[in-house]
Amino acid sequence: MRFRIGLMLLVVAALALALFPSVAERMMTIEMLGWHLEMRQGLFFALVVLLALALWLLVRLVRLLAAGPRRMVDAWRAGGRRRREVRLIDALTSWVNGVPVEGGRVRDAAAGLVPPWLAEALAVLVDPAADPREDEQPLIIALRGRQMAQPEGEARLSLAVRRAVVERWLARFPRALPARLQALRLAEEAGDWSAVVALIEQAPRGVELPDGARRKGRALLRLAEREERPPLSLLQQAVRLDDSDEAVLALAAAHRQGDDLKSARGVLLDALDRRDSMTIARALAAQEAAFDNPLLVLHMLEKRCRKQANVAQRWLLVELARQAEDRERMQHHLRQLKRSAEGARLAWALEAEQHMEAGEWESAARCYRQACADAGVGERP
Question: How far, in Å, CA of 285 to CA of 353, rounded?
């Protein structure tokens, strides 16, 4: 740009001299380095313009000659870049379509096209099972852990590999809820109940695990099952955290194993007060039948149910009265049981069992038909 401006100024000066011949015809003397040159001013400016044009043409020619090899190199580089773009597009298309692709193939194709961290991220997305480096960026660690939780990763990788990657993710981001949840799920899948308890107890403050108390209670119950005589404190904590039928029955069984029938009975009765569970009611009925002590529990349960009783408690009252051979109480509680739809079905089933024990098959069939009707089940031909 500067050369063009200078050339334009020379041309303007030459034109000015041409317009003023008196000035152009004046002689001028140039002395430099021992040289002595005399010429008219108009001719001097004309020679300077011609020399500048010649110099400019020479520079352009040299540039054109030098641009040939450089353009060849640029074309070769552009061709290589285009080939890598095509390979990258093909690899990503295969991955999107569900075709297994190696992460190294994506990383090599993306080299030079995208930032190195993005190339590595693409490789992890495509192949999370690739061997991780020790100096991986936190983004890559988190991305690899998230990919392990996808169905594709679970189908291709072993449980041990997935746990190792997710644990590395959790170690790098201890407050990341998705990382802790995935580690918790994989520990449960592996049956590592000690790790489950540790993951829940070591959660940082402010990180709330959904359903964490119940999952911890279930893990404590599984740990107790591994011991021949599980500690009562462990089972009691499991019941407090996860008040399920399984945990309650395990605690009652531990009390019976320690010859503490009173505590076992109290655990089951308290559980029936909290919820309507036929599983616990049947377990308590079987326990008292085995110890031949239904009348005591019948009195205890009647005191608890003076005002209100759920279906399971009412069924248990009928069953305990039957075991105690107290027909009057049994009929009373049967009438109470029939007041609800679910209770009526159980009451008719109990009456059917009584008729079957007495050999009254027609009456038993009639009771069973009534139970099916109350349950909404059609009669079979």
Answer: 15
